[in-house]
Amino acid sequence: MTNSEARKEDQSLSSLALDPELLAEELAAEADLDPLESIGSDEETFDSQAVARACDQGIVWLQQGHDERLQGLRVFCEHRDPRAIPPLMALLNQPCPVERMSAVYALGRNPSPQAVEPLLRLLQADSNAYVRKATAWSLGNFPDAPILNPLIRALQVDVAAVRLWCPGSLAEAGSRSPSKADPAAGQLLQSLRIDSEPVVRSNCIWALGRLCDQLVAPRQQELVEALVNALLHDSESSVRDEAKTALEQLEDPAVLARLQTLLDEGFIR
Hints:
The protein contains 16 helices and no strands. The chain has helices at 3-18, 20-31, 48-62, 66-78, 85-91, 97-109, 116-125, 129-138, 148-157, 160-163, 166-174, 178-194, 198-211, 217-233, 237-249, 253-264. The chain is elongated, with a radius of gyration of 21 Å.
């Protein structure tokens, strides 16, 4: 490689490393769509041969240069293939945060028990918030692993971008048993009261709604009171709307009657 080519390569890597947000958004959008759900769709035919070819090529790309690795990572943010696990695990140690972040997303789409410990280390110690953000999402795909306390800790102390994705993963982890649901709900209730970011508070409300059925009666009542308080007093309309929706979705006659009373008396719209 000539000096000129090397400078261009350095500039390319630098620009990618400095602006991971765009790729994070693209990969997050892809991660919200499970290609397996499209099987049997009337609108789209799932072409297993095309997916197999894409995965074959993705495996090759993952073992090549930076740009090719990014292409391979995109493949496994969309498709599942057990062959991808070893190269994806290796990319968690890359110095480029875009590659680490993308590998984390891909492991969320290709969950393997051996990925849990490396992902937990990244959540707790990676210097890049985008990597930790991706990890907070991906760990939700490992609900039976010991992810509860690390996610609680991240929701308590990490930056807003990471806290944003912790509630959903806590809901997944907590949904496995009442013994996990209670500490998850406890932190979600605390964050609903004190978190400075409206979108984090909204996500806490959504996650609490997911956990309600797993909670004992006193905790359920605490949850209802917290949601009513958010509905009446939160400064952000989006949070108030989320609280109203969550209360309605509980389908509890007493709660619904309470909402109707608040509506009739003009406290809510």
